């Protein structure tokens, strides 16, 4: 039933597979042509006299298409005007209610909202929100290895070999209309330092992978993560001072170099997820100075200090080695504060505003949608993904339906694009494919 709830991109050749063609039958074949029941003298043959040849042939309800009479339009109209009306199926009887159903007068309602939900055709016509594979950005974990390593806390997700498994996964996603990815690297411990300098190594895992992907798939939109945590020996998104303080402006300096290295490799969208103050403006300036005016900035505008990131940190082995991220990521209790971040990111030149996590923060997505004209991204994070997967594996919920509903709800709240580990699975579902 996916096609009745979620519409697909019409440019996809497979997009209509979800439609149940078997249930679509032309109704013409069910019409029967007989004489009019209320003009008996003309139409209905009496039993005593020989039956007159009917003007319209009687067509049985079971036959597919009524035989044409060869009459002109004028003759058809004249026949009807004379009372010789073609027969249609009888008025259907009122369906029976179960015994014991109370007999009540109908409620005097001027509006019955259930009317527009009566049939699949009506429901599809009045559907307010749609979702298509083009709305998805597929987060992919990469590593230096050649094998794909399963991520225990995220069933179905792997750390992909940057030259092997990654290419196959990207090709599969493109096959079903997902043409945007975001890369997350698992960096060898030996390369991690307190100042995260591997983040801007032009020959590092991420820039190298971007160049290879752009070579193979020139049309692919590549998003990158800008933050120090995969490269930090402290597991934090910024440089940690002796007293545990995450240094803001010094970190921003590193992030600018990281963003420029990614842009030089061919990244289309750089995405600062670090939550340092002022990093969007600084990165914009650094990109422009280096000649990358065309590269977009997707700012993690409202990124909350959330426990829903747990599986991701396992995937990248990027748990903070001490403390938490509460001095830079937002307090989950705060709503108005998101608008402070929106105003800063807008004035600093962000192209896309991101909210993270997704489903528990629909109110934040809606607030930003109502307060900014900029495109909005929602990140359905690792914990959200893993909960749905676990529920499905345990057969507590219907995984596919819950997956599609959660994605549709993110769109309804106001997200233009969704970063989701379900991107491939959901796009296959929208295209009518089953895994
Ligand atoms: C780090 C980053 C995190 C995620 C994306 N970028 C983790 C964190 O902030 O600790 C989480 C994504 C997820 O949970 O799926 N800059």
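Sequence proposed for the structure above (435 residues):
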């Amino acid at each position: 039933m996916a096609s009745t709830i979620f519409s697909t991109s019409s440019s996809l050749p497979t997009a209509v597979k979800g439609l149940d063609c078997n249930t679509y039958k032309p109704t013409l074949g069910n019409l029967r042509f007989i004489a009019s029941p209320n003009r008996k003298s003309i139409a209905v043959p009496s039993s005593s006299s020989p039956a007159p040849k009917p003007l319209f042939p009687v067509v049985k309800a079971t036959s597919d298409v009524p035989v044409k009479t060869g009459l002109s339009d004028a003759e058809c109209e004249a026949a009807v005007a004379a009372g010789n009306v073609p027969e249609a199926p009888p008025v259907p009887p009122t369906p029976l209610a179960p015994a014991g159903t109370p007999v009540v007068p109908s409620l005097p309602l001027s509006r019955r909202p259930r009317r527009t939900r009566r049939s699949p055709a009506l429901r599809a016509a009045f559907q307010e929100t749609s979702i298509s594979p083009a709305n998805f950005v597929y987060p992919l974990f990469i590593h230096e290895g050649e094998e794909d390593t399963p991520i225990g806390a995220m069933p179905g997700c792997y750390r992909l070999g940057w030259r092997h498994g990654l290419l196959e996964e990207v090709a599969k996603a493109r096959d079903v209309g997902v043409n945007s990815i975001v890369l997350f690297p698992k960096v060898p411990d030996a390369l991690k330092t307190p100042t995260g300098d591997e983040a801007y190594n032009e020959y590092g895992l991420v820039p190298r992978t971007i160049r290879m992907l752009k070579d193979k798939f020139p049309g692919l939109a590549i998003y990158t993560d800008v933050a120090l945590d995969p490269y930090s020996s402290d597991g934090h998104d910024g440089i940690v001072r002796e007293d545990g303080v995450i240094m803001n402006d010094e970190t921003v300096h590193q992030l600018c170099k990281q963003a420029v290295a990614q842009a030089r490799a061919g990244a289309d969208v750089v995405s600062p997820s670090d939550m340092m103050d002022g990093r969007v403006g600084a990165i914009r300036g650094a990109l422009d100075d280096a000649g990358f005016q065309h590269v977009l900035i997707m700012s993690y505008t409202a990124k909350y200090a959330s426990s829903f990131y747990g599986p991701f940190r396992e995937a990248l082995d990027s748990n903070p080695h001490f403390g938490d991220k509460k001095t830079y990521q937002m307090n989950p209790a705060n709503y108005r504060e998101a608008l402070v971040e929106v105003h800063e990111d807008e004035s600093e030149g962000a192209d896309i505003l991101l909210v993270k996590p997704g489903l528990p923060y629909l109110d934040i997505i809606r607030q930003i949608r109502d307060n900014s004209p900029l495109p909005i991204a929602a990140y359905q994070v690792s914990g959200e993904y893993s909960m749905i997967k676990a529920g499905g594996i345990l057969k507590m919920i219907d995984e596919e339906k819950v997956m599609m509903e959660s994605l549709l709800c993110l769109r309804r709240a106001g997200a233009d694009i969704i970063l989701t580990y379900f991107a491939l699975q959901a796009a296959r579902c929208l295209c009518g494919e089953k895994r």
